[in-house]
Write a structure and sequence with these properties.
3 helices, alpha+beta
Length: about 180
Amino acid sequence: MSIKFFVAAMITVSASFALADHMGPQGDKFYDEAAHFTNACQKSPCQAPYSMKVVYNQKSRLNKMEIEEVNVLKQIAFDQAQVWGDTILEGDFYSAGRTRLDEVKAFYRDERIVGFKIRYSEKAWDTGECAFDGTKASLKGCKLGRIIEESYVSTDFRTFFTDEDRQADFSLDLH
């Protein structure tokens, strides 16, 4: 099966329902690999045998990935953000609802790619200290920022889960 066909199938399947954290085949193994990577890359540079490099950055327009791969990761980011309605958005925040894939880091073990770490965000407002009444017009007096979160994604795109240390958080940084 070609990567383009597989990726197109994954987009179709994942677009039909929202998922939050999904364990595909070999998901437990990937979860363990991501934990090892996280520990090895707490400081730069990563400790051998792990390494990491940025392969996509929305702000700097860096893209070293196939467009199909980027599209699947954008869909996964969107799916992961759907959980925010039951988490951060239950508090004093309102989001625009347009999820943006901000950055993709590929991580390697012995120079073999073993997964991705994605950062995604949505434009959002802190409504805790303003006169927000549920209308977009009332957001003008609220602090503008972004809700930002990170997740790990396997190379087959079938396993993904939120980074427990980088769960959804509001930031005044608009980039």
